[in-house]
Structure formats: C-alpha cells, structure tokens
Write a structure and sequence with these properties.
Layout lengths: L3 H15 L12 H10 L5 H14 L3 H6 L2 H8 L5 H19 L7 H5 L6 H12 L8 H10 L7 H9 L7 H14 L18 H21 L1
Helix pairs in contact: 1-11, 2-8, 5-6
Amino acid sequence: MIDKKRMERILDQLDEVYGKEHVCYLNNENDWQLLIATQLSAQCTDDRVNMVTPALFEEFDSVQAFAEADIRNIEKAIHSTGFYRNKAKNIQACCQLLLTKHGGKVPVDIDALTALPGVGRKTANVVLGHKYNIPAIVVDTHVKRISNKLGFTEFTDPVKIEFDLMGKIPKEHWLRYNTQIIAHGRTLCTARSPKCEQCFLLKDCPGGLYELYSRIVKNEGWAKEKE
C-alpha cells in the first residue's frame, strides 16, 4: 500500500517546483498535428520531433494531404525520427481512417483513438489531455521509470502503470503529473546519471535512497581495494 501522506508530500513538492500547468512539449497548432507529432515521438526525443514537424506540416497541411500523399514523401520528411517506414505507414493509415470514419476529425474518445493505426493509450491520452482537457495519465519512459523509483507502482507494463496510478494519484493531478515528471526526469532524475543527492524528493524516494546507498557501498569497496 502507498503511504498517502508521502504521496501528498511528493505531489505538493512537484507542484511547488514545476508548477501546476500541464505543458505540451510537442509543438502543434491543432489536434491532428499533436496526434501525428506524438506518433513520431515514439523512440525519438521531443526536440527531434519539433525539428521535423514545421516542414512536415507545411508540406502536408491537412489530414487529407497525409492520407493522399505518396508515402515515400512522408518517409523522407520524417526519416530522422527513426522507424520512419513504419511511422509513415501508420500515420497515413491513421489519416485515411480519420477521413473515412470520423469525417476528418480527431475523435474525442479513448477507444476510438486507440482503434486508429499507430495510436496507443499514451498517444491517445496526450491528445485528450492537452487538446480537450480530459483527465488522463500519460505513461512515457520518464513516468514509467520515476513512478517505479518513487514506489508509486511496481508494474512495468505501461497500461498497468496507467491504471495503477489512476487509482492512487488524485484525479486533479493526473494531467500535470506527466509534465512534472518529464521535467524532473530531464533535470534531476535522469536515466543515466540521476542527481539523487540534489533531489528535493530524496527523503521520500525509496529508489533514490537505494541509489545513494549503492554508490556509497561501491565507493567504499573501491577505496578498500586501492588500499
């Protein structure tokens, strides 16, 4: 069971440090652009996607333009985001289905969104949260890793993590949790070199405390070997 007081302290500190606004890190002007940008962000950084999308959305300026394009041109435009053939295939199929089944509009429904090619719950929740203000928890690599580190969940499957967190984190905090955890993962709790000793959440973070303890043990062992 999660210690509710510990969780409240963590959420309050996240609010204090990172604010209560839920910020979208993918540049976009409308719902279909965000849908496509989020698809491109799979196995790719937001910064890279933001470098690609200005020219991409200028060349293909509508759902219909993507649906009717020569797929080789889409592949060329998104090449640097990685897995470009599969992404181009899914994006075009997604746009074609938007036209034939949804009148060219992005549906405001989790089941309808996840029925689109290349759209999982993460992508669907990004669109629902950032475009329609519908409470959702987005499980990306930062949320998965740091939620486990904080002891908020023991699951590794993103869908199980999503529902686990939904049952523990107050609904009013769902949208900003992802934004805050991304910021935390980029500044202090980085994957390769977490700055646990500088982290304002350290005393309430089981993973961070274990990380520091492991470093101390390792360093003491190294020092003894040198002697």
